[in-house]
Structure formats: structure tokens, C-alpha cells
Amino acid sequence: MVFSFLQFNFSQIYPIKLSSQTPVFIINPIAGAKKVNSKKLIEEFLSNNKLMGIIETTTEKNHGKTLTKKYFEEGFRHFVAVGGDGTVNEVASQLINTEAYFSIIPLGSGNGLARTLKIPMNPNEALDKVFNGKKSVMDIGLINDLPFFCTAGVGFDAHCAKQFATGNHSRGLWNYIKVILSGYFSYQTNQSIFCEQPKEYFSVTFANANQFGNNAYIAPDAVLDDNQLDCTIIEKHPKWYGMVMGYLLMSGKIRQSSYVEYYRGTEFSLRHNEKILMHIDGDYVEPFSDNIIAQTLPHALKLII
Ligand SMILES: Nc1ncnc2c1ncn2[C@@H]1O[C@H](COP(=O)(O)OP(=O)(O)OP(=O)(O)O)[C@@H](O)[C@H]1O
């Protein structure tokens, strides 16, 4: 049977057998701006508390998906993403509508989902939640059938996600702000048909969580288990207004802007004249469709937080 092996070193010290509820930690070593030795941190926590865990580190993009799938097939039912929203997406996308539980150690740059779930930003406190947290459940979003857990969308945010990923930038908030500022003044709006109505937009965000990360509240009223997606449309606005928009975003008041439309629903459509760049949980996806369909999948992910 699957659990007959004792993979983790501590098993030699503490005679505890692995079980299906032994957490599998999936570390993204490139996540986050701070250089944290996540593996050492987790090993020390497990050792100090005489707990068991399996620790894996990804070696390339999408490796988190492969590792999660492998351990799920071996019978494990508790997975922990160690990183940011991209890592969350890789791990949690393999657990949708299964009996497995999901937790997060927020060691990314923005940590949008972890912040919305109020998971402590202190890694040791977050580790404690992995073992002693409450069971819960959340909705997930689908954008053209691709799962997202925090936010997904088109327009300026997707443009920035691509510039950030392809521009050889270090991770972290300040480098992201540089990318935003360098693209903001030249960015043109997009023409579309939003839910059968013509709409010119700067960005359209479908939000499962209430923020992009770093407490940038793009959908301040989003609730993770309300069976709905929130949708924030930022319309064409004068460039001088960018400062105001930034303030409203960071203060959770974006709905007060006269350039913002805010919707809540279970499904949205957005048609364009050509295939359009998207972002999913902050990672860009090359254009593959001119027609965007965003939907919610209610209560599809089990949590321990
Ligand atoms: N070993 C790896 N090497 C390169 N890329 C990886 C590796 N493991 C995961 N990735 C990718 O790294 C990207 C960034 O990860 P993640 O989003 O977790 O960190 P972040 O961008 O710093 O945090 P946040 O999304 O919260 O701002 C994701 O696209 C993920 O798929």
C-alpha cells in the first residue's frame, strides 16, 4: 500500500507512520521577493513539534501540478502550497471537487488568496494552521474552463502580468509597481461586448478573492464561499486619474470611482474582435480565444486554514 514507505527523515527519529492526512508541502523556490529557505523552515517546524510531513520543491513551472497529482494518486489528501498565488493555482487546480484538503504557507509576493482567507503572513503561524486550522470550503472560478482561485482577467492587468514574467524582473511588490508605471501611460483601452452590451474597458477582473494581493482590493466585496464571482470593470479614464485609482484600489474603495462598474454573478461573457491575452492568478496566458467565459464553481475546494 501507498503509506508503507517512510519518506521523510524525521520518521527515523519519531516512529510516526505516514497517513492519508499527512500534509504534502509543495514549495515554489522562486516565489516571493524575500529569500526564505522554505524547506528548512518547514523541517524545523515539523521537528520542533514532532509532526510528519512530506516536503517537495518544484524544479520548473507546472511541476507543482505533477507533484500534487502524483501524491494524490498515492493516497495523500492534504496538500500545502508554499509560495504565492501561482503556486496556489498549480496545487489547488489538482484538488478541485475531490475529498482532499488544501492549505497555504504564504511565501509569495502578493499572496492574494491567503490574505483573503486571513491566513497569517507569518510562516510559522501559517504552519500551525496547517495542523490545527479549521476545515472550510471555498468556491473557485473558471475562465474559459481554466481554474483560478484568486483573480483572473483581461486588459491592463494581463498586460502587466506578461511584462512582469517576460521582462526578466525580480519578484516582489516594488518591481511590480515599476512594471505598472512603465506600461500605464501608453496602454490603450479594449473594445468588447460584455454580457451582450458594447463595452470599452481598461481592465476587466473576475474575482473569486477580494484582492490581487498585497491588499490591492480590486473586488472589495468578493466573498469566497458565496457561490458567485465579482466582476470589476475599470473603464477608460484620464491618465491623471491613475493616482486616484491607485488610492481607491489600496483603500478598498474602488467601487466609489465613477470609472468603475461592479457586478456580481455566476457567469459573465466577454467577446472581442481578436484573441485576447488573459491573466490567471497573476500569470499571463497567451491569447487563445476571442470569447471569454468566466464562471463560478461553488464550494469546489476544501480547506484547512
Ligand atoms: N521551480 C520553479 N521554477 C520556475 N517557476 C516556477 C517554479 N515553480 C513554480 N513556478 C512558477 O512561478 C510563478 C510564480 O509563483 P508564485 O505566483 O507562487 O509567486 P509570486 O509571483 O512571487 O507570488 P504572488 O503570485 O502571490 O504574487 C508561477 O507562475 C509558478 O507557476
CA radius of gyration: 20 Å
| Element order: H for helix, E for strand | HEHEHEHEHHEEEHHEEEHEEEEE
Per CATH, what is the topology of the largest domain?
A: Tumour Suppressor Smad4
- Share of helix among residues? 25-40%
Helix count from the secondary structure assignment: 9
**Structural class assignment:** alpha+beta
CATH class of the largest domain: Mainly Beta
Distance between the termini: 29 Å
Number of strands: 15
Beta-sheet strand percentage? 25-35%
Largest sheet: 15 strands, mixed
Can you list the ligands bound to this structure? Answer: adenosine-5'-triphosphate
Give the integer mean of the pLDDT values. Answer: 93
Low-pLDDT residue intervals, each spanning 5 or more residues? 9-15
Q: What's the overall geometry? A: globular
CATH architecture of the largest domain: Sandwich
> What is the number of domains?
2
Keywords: ATP-binding, Kinase, Nucleotide-binding, Transferase
Protein name: DAGKc domain-containing protein
Organism: Lacihabitans soyangensis
Domain DAGKc: 19-147
Please give a quick description of this structure.
This protein is α+β, with helices and mostly antiparallel strands and 305 residues long. The protein is built from nine helices and 15 strands.
Descriptive overview:
The protein is of the alpha+beta class and 305 residues long. The chain has two domains: 2-133, Probable inorganic polyphosphate/atp-NAD kinase, domain 1 (Rossmann fold); 146-298, Sandwich (Tumour Suppressor Smad4). The protein is built from nine helices and 15 strands. It has a 15-stranded mixed sheet that branches. A hairpin with a 2-residue loop joins strand 5 (135-143) and strand 6 (146-148). It starts with 9 loop residues before the first helix and ends with a strand. Mean pLDDT is 93; it is low at 9-15. Bound molecules: adenosine-5'-triphosphate. Adenosine-5'-triphosphate is lined by residues 28-32, 58-61, 63-64, 83-87, 90, 108-111, 171, 213, 282-283.
